[in-house]
Amino acid sequence: MRSLGAILSKEGVPVSGALVLTQQNKPKGFMCVSCAWMKPAEPHVFEYCENGAKATAWEITTKRVGPDFFAKHTVTELESWSDHDLEAIGRLTHPMRYDAASDTYVEVGWHEAFWDIGQQLRAMDPKKVVLYASGRASLETSYMYALFGRMLGTNNMPDSSNMCHEPTSVALPQSIGAPKGTVTLEDFDNADLMIFCGQNPGTNSPRMLNELQKAHKRGVPIITFNPLRERALERFRSPQHVKEMLASIDTPISSQYHQVRIGGDVAALTGVCKHVLALDDAAQAAAGPRVLDTGFIAEHTHGFDAFAEAVRAHPWEALEHQSGLSRGAMEAVATVYARSNAVIGIYGMGLTQHRTGVENVQMFVNLLLMRGNIGKLGAGICPVRGHSNVQGQRTVGITEKPELAPLDKLRELYGFEPPRDKGLDTVGACKQVLADEVTAFVELGGNFIRAVPETVAMEQHWRDIPLTVMISTKLNRNHVIHGKAAYILPCRGRIEIDVQATGPQVVTMEDTSACIQGSHGIREPASEHLMSEPAIVAGIAQATLSPNPAIPWTQWVGDYSLVRDAIERTYPELFHDFNQRVDEPGGFHLPITARKRDWHTPTGRANFIVPRSLNEDIVVPEADRDVLQLMTIRSNDQFNTTIYGYHDRFRGVRGTRMTLFMHLNDIDRLSLAEGDIVALTTKVDDGVIRRVGGFIVTPYDIPEGCMSAYYPEANPLIPIWHHAEGADTPAAKSIPVTLQKMDVPAQHLAAD
Ligand SMILES: Nc1nc2c(c(=O)[nH]1)N[C@H]1C(S)=C(S)[C@@H](COP(=O)(O)OP(=O)(O)OC[C@H]3O[C@@H](n4cnc5c(=O)[nH]c(N)nc54)[C@H](O)[C@@H]3O)O[C@H]1N2
Ligand SMILES: Nc1nc2c(c(=O)[nH]1)N[C@H]1C(S)=C(S)[C@@H](COP(=O)(O)OP(=O)(O)OC[C@H]3O[C@@H](n4cnc5c(=O)[nH]c(N)nc54)[C@H](O)[C@@H]3O)O[C@H]1N2
Ligand SMILES: [Mo]
Questions:
Q1: What structural domains does the chain harbor?
Q2: Distance CA 668, CA 670 (A)
């Protein structure tokens, strides 16, 4: 509450702003703009968390950035501003165009902006145009944006998911025939074991802690695999229970906490599976009840024998070495797993952002399949999605993969020939930017240049893009690193009332459990000059495309329920009666076939998939003890590239984001000391020097050989080719680096 009070007053939001929060995540209220965690049908009075409240305050701030501001600051000057300072100056209010003569952004009329953007886009090869989407825009906006892209003639639609849960979208269809998680809140109430791999709910999906606390009170064990000891996975005190807060009653969360080495999950999970097999062998020998769910395996799965053979073949020494865990630790997990009947596997970026991201996810599913833990009450796989509508954007067509888009349906409904070739994903788009092959880059939200790897080269080449267009709420680095012609198109946020021709509009989004809910804006917009996201997308589309009577862009903007009708016509099985169901309390769930044990895989069954090796991250050579693995993670005071402040309360960090968490033994071995300032250099052999200085050596409870720094500060260290195989998600969690001590005068250390 103290943290929340501080941010509300910093944003100039009076008590009425706090009242806004009481409508957060409520039926007929607005859906949080922060994470994608599920929202219950019967919400708490305060159905929000510290970080959701921060995100709200950040959007409803009373601070404004208008033409006067831009007149006073050249873009070159703004380049030296920090991520925090750029966003903290407030909400963008006017459409702006870059003026090279004065090196400033100057005001432009909406009509002129659309006309000019349209004229430029029309003259370009559509295969060189990229339409990026960060995961926040509604289903309505996203559907229109994807349709615009396909009518323009491109599938170049990278999204933030490409940097996030793409390994999930690739792994799960192969394993269980569905691209999404299989659990709902009901499963959380019925599970008897939860296993966490690489997800940090305390910071990134704090409302989930209520589920964990309830589970703990029911005696449900929670097992965590994480290199760091994350505070909220150890113990929790619910701010929604006043008594607990006042009496300082903590609930312990994890019953087992395994500090796996970065990238060691395949080995750790293989060890667990190996012991499950051993327990089953023992049960058979004693003629007791089987540990494996043999009925499920026989009826519903494929590939078990090959999987079991591969698992048995790995010697314990190799599993211990690669995972950094003892055999006893892996056996302890297996023992609890073997006696649990409904198990949920929960994971986040700690599994996906690796070169082995796809295999990490599949190995987690393998473990669940051994005891039939998919498609029954209280069990399932739970990828925790990031942005509040990132999952939904994919559902309604934002994807570079033509096979995932309803192309035939679009042709039938709108009478045009959609492009059939594969478009660019995030890594593909970066490579084309680096090759100077992109002529226009449009961003529907987000801060692409700051979120992607290879920052230094990307920024250099970005400046050569002929046209960049940012549809945004706040100023960020991607506005100041811009193309030759550059536009800022400021939009209303989701919390704001969106009045169109037929009155105030509702928008919808999909949460991590494939549940669709409506969101009603409740605040006056930050400026009368703002347009809504659907109106901006329609404005650009109308200025670019020749008219198509089947797509009434203007009517759609006047009444978003017509866009929902169009979504329903495009996806009748998913979105039948869409408009009637928008305000159902608790929302409505899209069908996930695997929940019903209906397996849409080539084998018609759930597949056990054997990982190719125990560890395919760039393995640090044994002899080269100077190379450490770096993971880049989030602090409690940020939402992705949005930096609210310089503290990371749960990890005890104050006043800086340049913390480098290290094991004490590594600090000693490399002749460093706490507080030393070091530079990090990426240790790969591709001829490019990637180095970031200014990190503060900080002893922490993390395995030897592993280190942690914050994203996005460390992004310049990630090579563009260092990504998940088969899914292209940058391997932001395992970057091989060396350290160099820097001599920095003490006064340079002050931050905040
Ligand atoms: N407040 C807030 N909420 C957010 C966000 C935010 O920035 N701030 N971002 C949103 C977005 S887009 C996303 S994708 C999610 C991200 O939420 P998370 O998935 O929790 O992402 P990270 O903070 O990157 O941290 C991942 C966790 O994985 C652990 N980890 C790293 N490497 C490994 C490994 O090799 N193995 C294992 N087992 N663990 C590992 C780290 O220690 C860390 O605890 O949160 C969403 N919600
Ligand atoms: N090293 C490293 N890199 C990473 C990650 C990591 O863990 N480590 N994580 C990756 C992940 S999981 C993700 S999802 C990406 C995130 O990448 P992005 O989604 O591109 O980045 P964000 O920081 O979420 O975008 C913030 C900006 O969105 C705009 N914005 C906010 N609200 C709205 C709105 O309502 N509408 C519109 N139009 N704009 C809005 C604001 O201008 C704000 O500055 O980063 C990835 N990059
Ligand atoms: Mo994400």
A1: 63-163+389-576 (3.40.50.740), 167-383 (3.40.228.10), 628-749 (2.40.40.20)
A2: 5
Question: Distance between CA atoms of 74 and 686, rounded to whole angstroms?
Answer: 36
C-alpha distances out from residue 101 to 74, 194, 475, 716, Å: 11, 59, 21, 30
Q: Do the Cβ atoms of 373 and 345 come closer than 8 Å?
A: yes
- What atom in ligand 1 is closest to the CA of residue 230? 44
Q: Is the pTM of this model over 0.85?
A: yes
pLDDT in tens, 518-564: 999 999 999 999 999 999 999 999 999 999 999 999 999 999 999 99
Eight-class DSSP state of 242: H
DSSP-derived secondary structure letter, 531: B
Q: What is the DSSP code string of 712-727?
A: TTTGGGS-TT-B-TTT
Ligand nearest the Cα atom of residue 630: 1
**Does ligand 1 have an atom closer than 6 angstroms to the CB of 356?**
no
Ligand 3 ion: residues within 5 Å (CB) = 164, 386
Neighbouring CB atoms inside 10 A of 10's CB total: 16
Of all ligands present, the nearest one to the C-alpha of 454 is 2
What are the φ and ψ backbone dihedral angles of 115, each rounded to 5 degrees? -60, -45
pLDDT in tens, 614-665: 876 665 566 678 999 999 999 999 999 999 999 999 999 999 999 999 999 9
| C-alpha–C-alpha distance, residues 715 and 633, integer Å | 11
